[in-house]
Amino acid sequence: MSVLTVAGIFLLAAGARFKGSLTNSGTLMALLVALFIGAAFDLYGLLILAVFFLTSSILGKVLDKRVESNTIEEKGNRRDARQVLANGGWPAVCAVFYLFTGDSVWLIAFLSGFAAATSDTWASEFGRLSKRCPLDLIRLKPAVKGQSGAVSVIGTLGAAAGSLIIGVSSFLFMFLSEEPFTIYTFVLISVIGFTAQLIDTIAGGTIQALYECPGCGEKTERTRHCGYRTVRIRGMSFINNDVVNHLCTASAVFITWIVYVII
């Protein structure tokens, strides 16, 4: 890992903390994730990490000024250690395996993991722009904006765009690192990222905990609302959005392995 890569890692983390995109714990976890990625892929790996993080953070901050934030989510746009690990942990694991094995499946799994994380994040951010209530994908009923497991047309388009931008960035990554890259690889990464985001949506609408406030009747992912302890109406209490995001990126890695075994 070059000195330039190390400098880039600390600059990226410090900038994110200064801009308020990361908490203190999130900054430390981001440094750890980035160091693993930098060790495996040097400066080129940081390109993918930067595309995911910078685009997601900029989207969140721009939309915060244009659209009223929803109150259903447990956490805001400042990522803590658990959120950073949920989005970047599995790609970092893939980076470590690639570092020790050199097997290309870990490289594609790394890229697919970030395609999934970006697809999921962009789906949530673009979904905030929808003029209509989203649709509960499992129950096919109107849902509250921001509710896990719900989809909208603009959110779905955002999910596709998020996955595609990592696919395009992967081409630049492969070109700079002199790795072979084909249209098939681009399609594979993009499709796996979008598919993993759909798995995230299904999990969010089934096993993720959803609560209801006894004070105002609002549905929320928070355990406290309006000064009351909320009542769980769906899902499992130990499965929150961070766990579902882990499932999203992990499923991208798993699907990549399945595709490589079949082929």
UniProtKB/TrEMBL annotation:
<keyword id="KW-1133">Transmembrane helix</keyword>
<comment type="similarity">
    <text>Belongs to the TMEM19 family.</text>
</comment>
<dbReference type="Pfam" id="PF01940">
    <property type="entry name" value="DUF92"/>
</dbReference>
<feature type="transmembrane region" description="Helical">
    <location>
        <begin position="181"/>
        <end position="199"/>
    </location>
</feature>
<feature type="transmembrane region" description="Helical">
    <location>
        <begin position="84"/>
        <end position="100"/>
    </location>
</feature>
<feature type="transmembrane region" description="Helical">
    <location>
        <begin position="150"/>
        <end position="175"/>
    </location>
</feature>
<protein>
    <submittedName>
        <fullName>DUF92 domain-containing protein</fullName>
    </submittedName>
</protein>
<keyword id="KW-0812">Transmembrane</keyword>
<dbReference type="InterPro" id="IPR002794">
    <property type="entry name" value="DUF92_TMEM19"/>
</dbReference>
<keyword id="KW-0472">Membrane</keyword>
<feature type="transmembrane region" description="Helical">
    <location>
        <begin position="28"/>
        <end position="55"/>
    </location>
</feature>
<feature type="transmembrane region" description="Helical">
    <location>
        <begin position="243"/>
        <end position="262"/>
    </location>
</feature>
<dbReference type="GO" id="GO:0016020">
    <property type="term" value="C:membrane"/>
</dbReference>
